[in-house]
């Protein structure tokens, strides 16, 4: 008849959470900013659009901003016009 090997004792398990850590977490959560403040500070994205469309919305907004900037740059006066208007001095005109 075979003898059975002795069964090792089961290890003593500690609770899965530290009460002090839980208390620190509660304090941190109590003072964290609300969702609207995080959106205002550009930490969170505004979630008025479905998540599947959010990347497309951001790309569209960026494209519109690029177009607006390009238009503003095209509409700005040339250095020669600024010299004629007395805004820029001849010596400050960048070389063409």
Your description of this structure?
It contains 4 helices and no strands. The chain is mainly alpha-helical and 96 residues long. The mean pLDDT is 87.
Report the β-strand fraction as a percent range: under 5%
Helix content: 40-55%
Query: Could you say which structural class the secondary elements and strand pairing correspond to?
Result: mainly alpha
Tell me about the biggest sheet?
Answer: none
Which regions have little confidence, pLDDT < 50, spanning 5+ residues? Answer: none
> Using DSSP, what is the number of strands?
0
Number of helices: 4
Shape: elongated
Rg, rounded, reads 33 Å
Listing every helix as H and every strand as E from the N terminus to the C terminus, the arrangement reads HHHH
Kindly report the average pLDDT value: 87
End-to-end Cα distance: 102 Å
């Amino acid at each position: 008849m075979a003898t059975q090997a002795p069964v090792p004792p089961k290890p003593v398990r500690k609770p899965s959470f530290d009460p002090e850590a839980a208390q620190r977490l509660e304090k941190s959560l109590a003072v964290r900013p609300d969702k609207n403040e995080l959106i205002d500070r550009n930490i969170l994205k505004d979630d008025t659009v479905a998540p599947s469309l959010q990347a497309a919305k951001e790309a569209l907004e960026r494209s519109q901003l690029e177009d607006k900037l390009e238009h503003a740059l095209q509409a700005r006066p040339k250095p020669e016009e600024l010299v004629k208007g007395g805004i820029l001095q001849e010596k400050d005109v960048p070389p063409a």
